[in-house]
């Protein structure tokens, strides 16, 4: 490529940055400036300079690099009009129902019944609490979701290396001596310290395949509530592929956050290849640290299409990394349920708690289970070292 | 004071000088490092464990003839461990000594207590005070979010303010290399402050060249055999695919055993140098023949 006047270069760089942004890499103006500055340092004479000056300034992850290469080839590949790059098509929102207008009358209210604001809210929650979300009307489900969003899921804490001042514990030499300095060197008071405590990371893996359709959104609402109460929380969806939606769930308002997450999920209501996706999660995220010492919540009915052996292997791997695995299976809430599917059978030996996830009550139960300190391991003789 | 960047005039020249320091950088890495030097920006190097992120900083220090100052990050690392701390025991001793000598000027004494000589410089302060220097912020992905934010501040203006002394400003900002193994996403704000380079596993040719550079006595044959086997292992879907560091370890182990080429039996005996998981070893042991087979 011939690089003529610098204005033209700037225009080209800006055009390229736009194309990159359209392909999914956010490019703020500061980065464009950085690219131009880099180009200036490199002399800007060749396509290679353009390539590298952009790559080190506009990318921030290997995924970015991949996308960058693609867009670069398309944009500077010689064509006068670059072919349209893959622009993310906003997927159809199939599952996520935005909370209904709170003023709307809930379905099923007969004429003459008192309007909702006159109903005792508590008793209404009681009615909804134990009903399976799959059988609820849209309005009732929206109400349940509002309650789920208001839950405060916590996770157990653990000791960290960091020392914090404490009322009792070993003497903190540094602080004590610092104190002494103030009193002319007299040891007036002893300062003590202890290890700080930190919440364990919560990791959600939510199955969004067809069989989980009625329950996935409720679980995602719960995960979103967890993201807000415990900022380090990570959320992934599994189905036919693994999608990380932590970023999308960062928004505060549940409806917007869920809509963003649903736009990022490409495989709503597909099939399940739980074993393979668990493996992908462990390879890409889990083993590197996301699952280490964490409390992992898997929301799935365990209808595994693939080979259950793989699922078993991966669950065993996960159990060695994670502090605790909580499996949420909505069918557990149904009478006469037994974990008989191949997937469930393979996974169960590695699961610490199996809970239902079909109703508001079950979600409240899940929040309690997450908060337990070491669950069934307490006194179980199956001690594990601190991560 | 030396202008660290002026000495190198192009990415190619930097690559040559890194080469002379025993580090083989490809075009991308050399360009990224060159830009970091010239633009005075930290270089954020991300990649799998063992691809040579840390040794890049070491080689850069050698090239620039500057000391390497290393800040190893870990969960819970905080400002006192990264910036500075007061040496309280020494301050106390000073106080006692002054008392014994009958010093009465209290103001003066207090002033003395917060003298520079009682300040313990931790890596970040050291790097600002040493000009020129190479600062390696290693495995930043292990530190907490709060520490990242703090780091961002220091790396943005290269000044540290110490209430009792004043502001310390770097005469020449240190050359900063930040590494991450990607165990966690590092915040965008920090990455945006830096130039980014994703360091991938090396190509076969480069791997052979690096092995022979690091272990000069090794023959072409052994280096090639190991590089080929390692490349295969990387494609074999293992829990922990071996990095460049593991190839070098493996060759070193084989050399200790007097090997000049890789055969099935030797490979089986020395797999521990490359594979760090029992499951991986078991899987590969069944296919050692294919592993060492020549293409």
Explain briefly what this protein structure is.
The complex is a heterodimer of chains A (387) and B (295). Chain A is of the alpha/beta class. Chain A has 13 helices and eight strands.
Please provide a written account of the structure:
The complex is a heterodimer of chains A (387) and B (295). Helix content of chain A is 43%, strand content 13%. Chain A has 387 residues and is α/β, with parallel strands linked by helices. In chain A, α8 (213-229) links the parallel β3 (202-207) and β4 (234-238). In chain A, α2 (29-42) packs antiparallel against α3, α3 runs antiparallel to α4 and α10 packs parallel to α11. Chain B is built from 15 helices and nine strands. Chain B has helices at 11-20, 27-39, 53-64, 79-82, 88-100, 106-113, 123-129, 145-157, 188-193, 204-214, 220-234, 244-256, 264-270, 278-285, 288-292, and strands at residues 43-46, 68-72, 84-86, 119-121, 134-138, 159-162, 166-169, 175-180, 195-198. In chain B, strands 2-5-8-1-9 form a five-stranded parallel beta sheet, with helices on both faces. Chain B has a two-stranded antiparallel sheet with strand order 3-4. Chain B has a two-stranded antiparallel sheet with strand order 6-7. Chains A and B meet through α2, α3, α4, β1 and α7 of A and α2, α5, α9 and β9 of B.
Task: Describe this protein with a few key phrases.
heterodimer; A: about 375 residues; alpha/beta; 6-stranded mixed β-sheet; two-stranded antiparallel sheet; 13 helices; 8 strands; about 45% helix; globular; disordered N terminus; disordered C terminus; B: about 300 residues; 5-stranded parallel β-sheet; 15 helices; 9 strands; about 50% helix; about 15% strand; elongated
Describe the secondary-structure layout.
The complex is a heterodimer of chains A (387) and B (295).
Chain A: H1 6-22, H2 29-42, H3 47-58, H4 62-76, H5 121-129, H6 138-149, E1 157-171, H7 173-182, E2 192-199, E3 202-207, H8 213-229, E4 234-238, E5 243-244, H9 254-264, H10 274-290, E6 295-299, H11 308-321, E7 324-328, H12 342-347, E8 353-355, H13 360-371
Chain B: H1 11-20, H2 27-39, E1 43-46, H3 53-64, E2 68-72, H4 79-82, E3 84-86, H5 88-100, H6 106-113, E4 119-121, H7 123-129, E5 134-138, H8 145-157, E6 159-162, E7 166-169, E8 175-180, H9 188-193, E9 195-198, H10 204-214, H11 220-234, H12 244-256, H13 264-270, H14 278-285, H15 288-292
Parallel strand pairs in B: 1-8, 1-9, 2-5, 5-8
Antiparallel strand pairs in B: 3-4, 6-7
Helix pairs in contact in B: 1-2, 1-3, 10-11, 10-12
């Amino acid at each position: 490529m011939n690089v003529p006047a610098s204005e033209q270069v700037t225009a080209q760089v800006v055009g390229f940055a736009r194309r990159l942004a359209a392909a999914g890499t956010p490019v703020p103006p500061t980065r464009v400036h950085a690219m131009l500055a880099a180009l200036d340092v490199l002399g800007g004479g060749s396509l290679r300079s353009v390539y590298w000056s952009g790559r080190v300034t506009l990318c921030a992850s290997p995924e970015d690099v991949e996308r960058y290469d693609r867009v670069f080839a398309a944009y500077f590949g010689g064509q006068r009009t670059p072919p349209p790059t893959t622009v993310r098509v906003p997927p159809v929102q199939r599952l996520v129902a935005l909370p209904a207008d709170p003023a709307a009358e809930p379905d099923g209210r007969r004429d003459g019944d008192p309007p909702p604001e006159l109903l005792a809210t508590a008793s209404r929650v009681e009615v909804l609490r134990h009903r399976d979300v799959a059988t609820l009307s849209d309005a009732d489900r929206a109400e349940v979701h509002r309650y789920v969003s208001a839950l405060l899921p916590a996770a157990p804490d653990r000791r960290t290396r960091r020392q914090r001042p404490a009322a009792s514990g070993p003497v903190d030499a540094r602080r004590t001596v610092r104190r002494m300095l103030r009193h002319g060197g007299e040891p007036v008071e002893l300062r003590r310290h202890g290890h700080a405590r930190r919440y364990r990371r919560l990791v959600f893996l939510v199955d969004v395949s067809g069989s989980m359709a009625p329950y996935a959104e409720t679980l995602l609402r719960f995960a979103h509530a967890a993201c807000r109460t415990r900022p380090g929380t990570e959320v992934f969806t599994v189905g036919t592929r693994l999608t990380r939606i932590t970023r999308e769930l960062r928004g505060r308002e549940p409806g917007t956050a869920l809509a963003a997450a649903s736009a990022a999920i490409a495989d709503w209501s597909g099939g399940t290849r739980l074993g393979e996706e668990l493996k992908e999660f462990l390879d890409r995220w889990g083993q590197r640290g996301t699952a280490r010492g964490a409390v992992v919540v898997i929301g799935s009915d365990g209808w595994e299409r693939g080979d259950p052996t793989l699922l078993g292997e991966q669950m065993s791997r996960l159990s060695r990394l994670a502090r605790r695995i909580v499996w949420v299976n909505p069918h557990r809430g149904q009478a006469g349920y037994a974990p008989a599917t191949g997937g469930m059978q393979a996974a169960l030996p590695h699961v610490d708690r199996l809970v239902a996830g079909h109703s508001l009550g079950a979600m409240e139960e899940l929040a309690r289970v997450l908060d337990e300190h070491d669950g069934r391991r307490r006194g179980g003789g199956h001690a594990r070292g601190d991560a | 004071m030396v202008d660290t960047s002026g000495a190198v005039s192009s990415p190619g020249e930097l690559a040559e000088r890194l080469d002379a320091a025993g580090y083989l950088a490809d075009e991308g890495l050399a360009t990224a490092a060159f830009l970091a030097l010239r633009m005075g920006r930290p270089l954020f190097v991300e990649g799998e464990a063992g691809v040579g992120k840390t040794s890049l900083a070491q080689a850069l220090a050698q090239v620039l003839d500057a000391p390497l100052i290393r800040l190893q990050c870990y969960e819970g690392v905080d400002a006192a461990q990264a910036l500075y701390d007061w040496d309280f025991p020494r301050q106390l001793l000073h106080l006692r000594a002054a008392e014994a000598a009958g010093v009465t000027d209290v103001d003066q004494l207090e002033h003395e207590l917060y003298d520079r000589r009682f300040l313990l410089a931790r890596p970040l302060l050291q790097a600002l005070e040493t000009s020129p220097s190479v600062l390696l912020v290693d495995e930043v992905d292990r530190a907490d979010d709060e520490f990242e934010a703090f780091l961002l501040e220091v790396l943005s203006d290269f000044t540290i303010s110490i209430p009792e002394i004043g502001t310390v400003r770097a005469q020449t900002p240190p050359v900063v290399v930040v590494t991450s193994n990607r165990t966690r996403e590092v915040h965008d704000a920090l990455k945006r402050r830096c130039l980014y380079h994703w360091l991938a596993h090396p190509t076969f040719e480069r791997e052979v060249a690096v092995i022979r550079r690091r272990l000069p006595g090794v023959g072409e044959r052994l280096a090639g055999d190991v590089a080929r086997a390692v490349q295969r292992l990387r494609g074999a879907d293992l829990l922990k695919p071996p990095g460049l560091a593991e190839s070098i370890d493996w060759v070193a182990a084989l050399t200790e055993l007097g090997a000049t080429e890789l055969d099935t039996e030797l490979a089986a005996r020395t797999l521990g140098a490359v594979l760090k998981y029992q499951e991986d070893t078991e899987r590969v042991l069944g296919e050692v023949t294919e592993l060492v087979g020549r293409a």
